[in-house]
Amino acid sequence: MDKSVFETALNHRTIREFTEDKVDEKLIETLKEVANRTSTSTGMQSYSIIRIEDEKTRKAIAEIGGQEYIARAPELWIFIVDVYRNSRIAREQGVELAAERDADRFFQGFTDAALAAQNVTCAIEAAGLGAVYLGSILNDAEALIDLLDLPELTFPVVGIGFGKPNQSPQLKPRMDMELKFFTDRYREFDHYMDVIADYDEEMQTYYDLRDANRRVDSFSKQVVTRLENASVNRANLAKIAEKQGFHLIGEEQDHVES
User: Fold this and answer.
1) From 77, 135, 139, 172, which residue has the greatest number of CB atoms within 10 Å?
2) Sign of CA dihedral 127, 113, 135, 77
3) pLDDT the model gives residue 217
4) In this protein, which residues make up the domain named Nitroreductase (predicted)?
5) Using a CB cutoff of 8 Å and minimum separation of 24, what contacts does 29-34 make?
6) What's the CA gap between 67 and 214, in Å, rounded?
7) Do 141 and 210 reside in the same domain of the chain?
8) Which of 46-60, 224-238, 244-258 is most confident?
9) Nearest to 115 by CA among 29, 162, 45
10) In angstroms, how far is CA 144 from the centroid of its own chain?
11) How much of the chain, in percent, has pLDDT values that exceed 70?
12) Beta bridge partners of 75
């Protein structure tokens, strides 16, 4: 708790291996409050968190993510878009609006969930623990939706596994902010490969603990590899969101009162 906010943020590392120590329940309650105090679009709080304790469910999520270490994390939380709650609050007042299903509501919830996940992760690290983001839960979003009994107007966003670190990975290199921070308008570069040359070289000296201490490819090669191995399931996330009742393509908003 003695580390400054800046020191904690600047030393962020992804932790994938944890000790068997359980996270103190008092800290869990504090982390819940941290999530609860996170900024939220128009105050609608259109997200929820599901804490996963059941071992079978944990293993199923690990299979969906293709990462067996997911099941071993002392704490596993799934952050979701949750527009369902507010739609029911409106309906119990006799109001049903097509707007409850629109893209605005979906992206408000998605942003709310992502902000809450980041806030919680910052608090986890400030408490001296480690965490890993689990975007892999979207490898099979439909399977996860079924597994967690997610109703309509909800959608998975990201997971966090956290606990006491059992590894000390290198600080992963990042590209220069010249490529990501602009003034007044977007900046395009004539030759990106030239601009990232030093970063490419730095990445090739970085060791990723997921790969038995082997060096990783240059960033430019990783970009191509990711594109060549794009997930069909993840490419269809918008269609899955539509199945969950969201209308991501605009349509006339009819007002219905019961």
Assistant:
1) 77
2) positive
3) 87
4) 11-164
5) 30/123, 31/120, 31/123, 31/124, 34/119, 34/120, 34/123
6) 18
7) no
8) 46-60
9) 45
10) 14
11) 94
12) 162
Where b means 16+ CB within 10 Å and e means fewer, 62-78 reads bbbbebebbbbbebbbb
The residue range of the domain holding 175 is 170-245
Give residue 3's Cα distance to chain centre: 25
94: in domain: yes
Buried-exposed string 199-216: b where 16+ CB fall within 10 A, e elsewhere? bbeebeeeeebeeeeeeb
Among 146, 169, 192, identify where a domain stops. Answer: 169
**Residue 11 has which token pair?**
């030393």
**Type of residue numbered 224:** V
Count of positions (residues) in the chain: 258
User: Do 73 and 14 share a domain, yes or no?
Assistant: yes
- For residue 127, what are the CA distances in angstroms to 112, 130, 169, 202, 253? 23, 9, 18, 30, 46
